[in-house]
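Last lecture ended with a question: if I hand you only a sequence, what can you say about the shape of the protein? Today we answer it with a concrete record. The protein is HTH arsR-type domain-containing protein. Below, first the input exactly as provided, then the predicted structure, then a couple of comments.
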Amino acid sequence: MKDMQRWTIVFKALSNLNRLKIVILLSTRRKMNVGDIAEALRISVTATSNHLIMLQKLGVLGVEGRDGHVFYSLNSRMPQDFTKTVRLFI
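The predicted structure:
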């Protein structure tokens, strides 16, 4: 059952094209803020923020606040099967 729950997280995270792009982008860079991610994806900051919130709630992203900015990165504690799945798209 635990494996099924993990795979549900993987599929929810990657089921939207913009979320998939965010995960791929963050897998190739260390940390980025919402503005940089929005610019890279060419979507609004609001849409980007909504996707980041969902990815954070799913436990896919780590968040760090520094100097009044919020930086996002992939959660290093994500299961290896998630990481392997993401690498299929890179």
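Comments.
1. The longest strand covers residues 61-66.
2. The first helix runs from residue 2 to 14.
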